Structures are given as C-alpha cells and as structure tokens.
Amino acid sequence: MDKMFSLSVITLYLLHTITAASSQVSAIQFNNFGYSGAYTPVVDLANIYDDTCSCAVASKPTTFSGTNTPLNEEVSVHFRGPLQLYNFASYVSQDFTLGDNSGEFTRLSFYDSAEGTADNVTFLTRAGKNSSCLGFGLTYADTDGISKANSPTVLADDTLINSNQEYVIFSNLTCDKSGVNNDCGVYREDIPAYHGFYGTTKMFLFKFSMPNETKSAWDVANYNMPAIWLLNAQIPRTAQYSNDVNCSCWRSGCGEFDVFEVMNVTEYTHLYSTIHDYQGTDDIESGLAGNGYIDRDLNGTMVGGVVFDSTGKVIVWMSDDTTFDETVQAGDLNSWIKGAEKNAVTTTLPTASLAVATETGTGSSTTKKNSGVVVARSSLITVLSSLLWFI
Ligand SMILES: *[C@@H]1O[C@H](CO)[C@@H](O)[C@H](O)[C@H]1NC(C)=O
Ligand SMILES: *[C@@H]1O[C@H](CO)[C@@H](O)[C@H](O)[C@H]1NC(C)=O
Ligand SMILES: *[C@@H]1O[C@H](CO)[C@@H](O)[C@H](O)[C@H]1NC(C)=O
Ligand SMILES: *[C@@H]1O[C@H](CO)[C@@H](O)[C@H](O)[C@H]1NC(C)=O
Ligand SMILES: *[C@@H]1O[C@H](CO)[C@@H](O)[C@H](O)[C@H]1NC(C)=O
Ligand SMILES: *[C@@H]1O[C@H](CO)[C@@H](O)[C@H](O)[C@H]1NC(C)=O
Ligand SMILES: *[C@@H]1O[C@H](CO)[C@@H](O)[C@H](O)[C@H]1NC(C)=O
C-alpha cells in the first residue's frame, strides 16, 4: 500500500472525526446504521456465588449483517437518575422510511405513571444477590424502581430515581429456560428473565423529567448524569456491570444505543446519543456519538423518542408534538421529527467495522464505565483497509 496515500486517508478520517464542535440540536440522526459484524454470546456461567465464579463465551462468534444490526435484535430499555418517567411506549412497523408518509407503527407496550398501568412492560432492577463475577442480579423492581419486589410491580406515580440508581424495562414475555439454543440464550438463572423488544423497524417513545440532582452526595458514581439507553437484551440477563469480559456479549459488540445521555458533570445539561458497537470504530468504550446534543430541561418534562427505520436511518428527537397513540401514522411521526429536524445533526456511519470483536481483551465488559481497549499494532493494517472501504 502506498504510504502517502495511507497517511492522507488517516488525516482525512481524523479531520472528519474531530472537526465541527458539538452544538445544541433537537434531533440527532445516524444514517447507514448496521454493518457486517460478529459478537460472542455467553455460553456458560459457572459457580456464580463462589470465588471461582467464571464465564465463557462461544468459541464461534454469532455473525450479523444488514439494516440496524446488531440492534435489530431484542433490546432492553434502561433508565438512570436523576429521572422520573411519565410514559414509555414501544412500537414496531412492517415498513417505515424516514420522510415517507406511508405505513404506520403499532404500539406493543405502554406505561402510564398517572394511570398506574404497565401493559407489556416489566420493571426490573439490580437488587439481587451480588456475584463476584456477575455483580448484582436483576429482580423485579418495587414501586420505588430500585428495591426488590417478589412479583411484577408497577412503579409509583411520582417515582424519582437519583444519581446512579437504575431500572430496566423488558416486555412481559418470559424467557424459556437458560440454554445456548433456547429463545433467550444463556442467562443468570436466579433472575426473572424476560424478552426484550424485537424488530428491525422499531420505535421507543418517552415522556420524562431529569431534574437537577439535589439528593445524592456529590461523590456518588455518575453524579447528576441521567440517561436513557438501549442494550442488546442478552447483556443485562447475564451481567451488565462485570469485570470479566466473558460474562456479557457487550465487549464483543452485541450492541448498545444511548438515546439521551449526560456524559459528564461539566456538561450536565447536554443529552448526547452514542452507538456502542464496532461500526466505524474500534473503541467500543467511547463508541460513536452524534455531533450534537439535545438540551436537558432541568425543570419541565421532556417528550421524545428514537426510531430505527427500515433503511438504516436512526433518529433521536425531542418534540412536545409527540403522542403515545396505539397506532402512529408515518405522516404524524414524520411531522414530529420534521419540527425537530430543522435543528438536527446527521452522522453517516461507515459501512466497515474497524475491529474484529475481541473476546480476549482485558478490562471491563461493563457498559457506562471506562477502560481502554488496547489496539494491537498488527490491526493497523486492518484499520487502514477498512478506512479505504468507506472513504
Ligand atoms: C402482557 O401484556 C399484554 C398487553 O398488555 C397482556 O394482554 C397480557 O395479558 C400480558 N401477559 C402477561 C403474562 O402478563
Ligand atoms: C459485590 O461483589 C464484588 C465482587 O466480589 C465486590 O467487589 C463488591 O464490593 C460487592 N459489592 C457490595 C456492595 O457488596
Ligand atoms: C410485548 O412485547 C414483545 C416484545 O416486543 C412482543 O413480542 C409481544 O408481542 C408484545 N405483546 C403484545 C401483547 O403486544
Ligand atoms: C445543578 O446542580 C449542580 C450541582 O450538582 C449545581 O452546581 C448547579 O448550579 C445546579 N444548576 C442549577 C441550574 O440549579
Ligand atoms: C463532556 O462530554 C462531552 C461530550 O462527550 C465532551 O465533548 C467534553 O469534552 C466532556 N467534558 C469533560 C470535562 O470531560
Ligand atoms: C429550574 O431548575 C433549577 C435547578 O433545579 C432552579 O435553580 C431554577 O430556579 C428553576 N427555574 C425555574 C424557572 O423554575
Ligand atoms: C475469556 O475467554 C477467552 C477464551 O474465549 C480466554 O482466552 C480469556 O482468558 C477469558 N478472559 C477472562 C478474563 O477470563
């Protein structure tokens, strides 16, 4: 390969990545979401309450390709405080193309805090037993979102979770028993295991508030850094926060999408959106963020959502026009987004993956924590050839 040419390719890539400071927007769009990649699912969790606790991932990776991969797989929906959730809904569509008014979305789940109803919604939280390699297990969440309940429970109307407190929403479909070839794969057997939300073309709507933190001590982790994000639903069913990379498929790239996330206390009023897989990056910890942020309203409620369309366009928007109807017509959805789109930022993802999934890498398989990925020198060639693919 010609050296000068490679250098200019790298320079172009870096310029493309670094230029243009982040600005305040109402919508964050990603085009060309989905690529040809692979991840390694967890196939074994052993002695989970012993010091000898260990996990293993498949020796043969699960490959994927096509629209919205790998998040075309089932996802769970995660919430971190300070946050109060008023409404949540999940939708699927046979066919929806951003900007095209044909088609519709059908609501499959709906939570309404004022009504105290949670249709096809199961609230879980990490209030289970602590395992040396898996961390805390999921349990049903009680009305406060963070204590353990013994059966599915709807959150109390005014439930505010504080910094670093989290709950998760799954569907109400229970998993078959844990097993490599079963519907939910291998999972931690002492948890209430539920399916996530399926669909290549899907949408999630949220009405929520993220008030300024006043209750937690400033030194708590993730202080005043609220977030709403999606994970491949396999991740929380094995281990969301683990120090062992083999206890979750996260490190190998089974997928995370951050919808509305405060990244640090300096920018505590900015909500960013980030993809964590290997599309266009070899740094899964940092992921690939949209080049703009949506304002976090510290006082009022916010309404918005994320839609994955049938052509690999994914858009996060905030607009008070958004409603939670049982059927959402494509035209209505486009009009909500269009309002927000006047002030939007778009990132077109490269088709290539910049790294092969690393099963053996050291460091945390944790989402929302940092630990660097060391890129082996030998992979530079791969990086260069992948860059050539998309420039
Ligand atoms: C799941 O939710 C649907 C929709 O609300 C409801 O019809 C169904 O009875 C629920 N199933 C279970 C097992 O709770
Ligand atoms: C949970 O277990 C891990 C690993 O053994 C340990 O480091 C951590 O301190 C435990 N957490 C609590 C709150 O007991
Ligand atoms: C509940 O959500 C799951 C996951 O998306 C879906 O498979 C199921 O059909 C939904 N149930 C109903 C009654 O719509
Ligand atoms: C929000 O809380 C932080 C402390 O966490 C404080 O520094 C800041 O002034 C507060 N912002 C407003 C607008 O009150
Ligand atoms: C906070 O996060 C934003 C977005 O990722 C980043 O641009 C900024 O440098 C971060 N600030 C600090 C102090 O880390
Ligand atoms: C908005 O919230 C901030 C921080 O909680 C507070 O300082 C401020 O007074 C509020 N503003 C209004 C207009 O209520
Ligand atoms: C993870 O599994 C791989 C084999 O797939 C093994 O080489 C590696 O040592 C394991 N990592 C840890 C931290 O156990």
Automatic annotation (TrEMBL):
First-tier enzyme category under EC: hydrolase
Family matches, as Pfam families: YJL171C_Tos1_C (PF10287), YJL171C_Tos1_N (PF10290)
GO terms under cellular component: fungal-type cell wall
Keywords: Cell wall biogenesis/degradation, Glycosidase, Hydrolase, Signal
Occurrences of domain Cell wall protein YJL171C/Tos1 N-terminal (ranges): 27-92
GO biological process: cell wall organization
A molecular function GO annotation: glucan endo-1,3-beta-D-glucosidase activity
EC number, as in UniProt: 3.2.1.39
Reaction equation(s) it catalyzes: Hydrolysis of (1->3)-beta-D-glucosidic linkages in (1->3)-beta-D-glucans
Sequence ranges assigned to domain Cell wall protein YJL171C/Tos1 C-terminal in this UniProt record: 103-336
Signal peptide: 1-20
Keyword Ligase found: no
Family: Belongs to the PGA52 family.
Protein name: glucan endo-1,3-beta-D-glucosidase
